[in-house]
Amino acid sequence: MNQRIMQRLIPLLCLLAGVSAACATAQTTPIKSLPVYDQCAALNAGTAADDAVAKAIAALKSPDAKSRAQAARQLAAACDSRGVDPLIDLLKDPDTSVRVAAVEALGKLGDPNSVQLMIDTVGEQNSQVRMAMISAFASFKTFLARNAIANHIANPSGADISDEADMRVRCAAILTACQLKDVQHSRKSILFLYEFLQSKHDNIRKLAEQTMLELKNTRNAASEMAGILSQSNDPMLRRWAALWIGKIGLTDARGALAEAVATDSDSTVKQLAAESLKQLPAAK
User: Fold this and answer.
1) C-alpha dihedral over 66, 85, 132, 16, to 10 degrees?
2) Which residue, 10, 52, 189, 279, has most beta carbons within 10 Å?
């Protein structure tokens, strides 16, 4: 059966199974790291009572959700500090698309004072809004914002994650953290996948496996997986890293595998590292 037919059947199968049609997207959309925004170089501080910014702020109170979302996008492009507080207020809008537009606008404006206020609403938001927050937080050059990706979005905090939409947000956050030049949260984010791979829920394990394989396309995965293999005191983590470096195809971690084969104190780590070395393309 070709892919086009399958894509048409999935929504019907979801509905027949008593699941919302949104599961079609979850079944077909690959998980990727999310882009960052080009933030405003500086925010203006306009004062006119009837300029475009003032009109856009007024439009945020329109009874029409599309008008409110459009006004948020206009404020994002205006680079005017007057838009920040009204957009923060918009994070509590009853319409999901409006909240997404507000998050995106705040990420593009780049006022660092908005980060904590956005963090304060993460737990109240649905998966679409939380997904938008990943790009927004990643666009800020601050520890607080980057930390939010790992610890307020990706981190399960001991919860038993079973919802697929929720898991997709967490996986996107992990991949995005591993794509940033700032590597402070890359390894911790990857280690969340170690937990997810042990989930009792088949769908969560499958998404974790997909995300592990997608790590190959991120900036920091090879160095972080190599670091886990060479630096962790937990032999189970070293075994996991040795196995997955080969499965993912992280050629830049070849040196860590060779070192593990030669010096690791755990025989299983040595064996898995040797097997992973065989899976990697021959060194040029």
Assistant:
1) -50
2) 189
CA distance 59 to 67: 7
Assess contact for 98 and 87: CB atoms under 8 A: no
Per the CB < 8 A criterion, the answer to whether 43 and 79 are in contact is yes
**Whole-angstrom distance, CA of residue 48 vs CA of residue 58:** 13
Q: How far apart are alpha carbons 72 and 78 in whole angstroms?
A: 10
Q: Please name which of 121, 141, 94 lies closest in space to residue 133, comparing C-alpha atoms.
A: 121
Say whether pLDDT at 52 is over 50.
Answer: yes
Q: Where are the alpha helices (DSSP H) in the chain?
A: 3-16, 23-28, 52-59, 65-78, 84-90, 96-109, 114-119, 127-139, 143-148, 164-177, 186-196, 202-214, 221-231, 235-248, 254-263, 267-279
**Rounded Cα gap, residues 1 and 3, in angstroms:** 7
CA dist., res. 40 & res. 77, Å (int): 8
Write down the pTM of the prediction: 0.88
How confident is the prediction for the chain on average, in pLDDT? 91
pLDDT of residue 45: 87
